[in-house]
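To whoever is on call:

I kicked off a structure prediction for a single chain this morning and the downstream step that reads the tokens threw a length-mismatch warning. I double-checked the sequence; it's 293 residues and nothing unusual in it as far as I can see. Pasting both halves so you can look.
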Amino acid sequence: MAAEEITIGVVGLGLMGGSAALKLRQAGFATRIVGHDVNPQHGQEALRLGIIDEQVSLAGLCRQADLIILAIPVNKALQVLPEIMEQVPAGTVVLDLGSTKEKICALAATLPNRQQFVACHPIAGTENTGPAAAFPELFKDKVNIICDAEASAPQAVKRATAMARALGMRTRFMNSREHDRHIAFVSHMSHISSFVLGQTVLEVEQDEDNIFDMAGSGFASTVRLAKSSPEMWAPIFTENATNILRVLERYINNLNKFKKMIAEADEAGLKHTMQEINLIRKVLEARKQETET
């Protein structure tokens, strides 16, 4: 693949799209990278930082690119994908990097050239945004999920998996509906918890100026995700609402149980509950060992 001359088009020149472009160039996967962003300042910054070789219109990107990466909020991807799929030449592969997959796969099924589209979700990211936040090792040793691969052409899936390898990722395959159900637990709820904790502390901080002076590493790591982009996460929460609301109901129920034990000074109950929760360490360590072997 490295010997093949590939022009990559990146739609959305922030953390995800910018990081992918940097690494694919570094790995020799891309010989030329063109970019498009609705924010012209992002395009200029991406040029200055060497993320892209040229800033082009969406139509120009469709004409030039052999592989198109949609790295934009999930609601925007739903708007842009039809326009792209109508314009791309035969053989061009289009993939998205969104955190929700069921709606975009359902939309893609109604579009021309569906077989040229591959639904991807690289499980990677930071709380930072914009072209300056991009760095080539963002995806290293992370997992890329390809959803509903049977609807994509084998050559399109092959190119998407080759791209993931160039990014330093391993690929898993999953049904789009199952993907959205599982990701609500392991990703979307983490961000909601962080946002709401940050909100709560900010409300208290209005009356207690010294609260942040007392914040340690535990607080910092817990609310780190609260610095994430609202433009990206609000659409994710609404698009995956059915799954998120189901998880939230269970989460709130567990919070209420915890609250009740504290209110009743049930130390034994708290210890027992936390000991059961500590088992997640074994699960995570076992999964880590599986991925390293």
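Update from on-call: the warning came from a stale cache, not from the record. Cleared it. Sanity check on the structure: The two ends are 26 Å apart (CA to CA).
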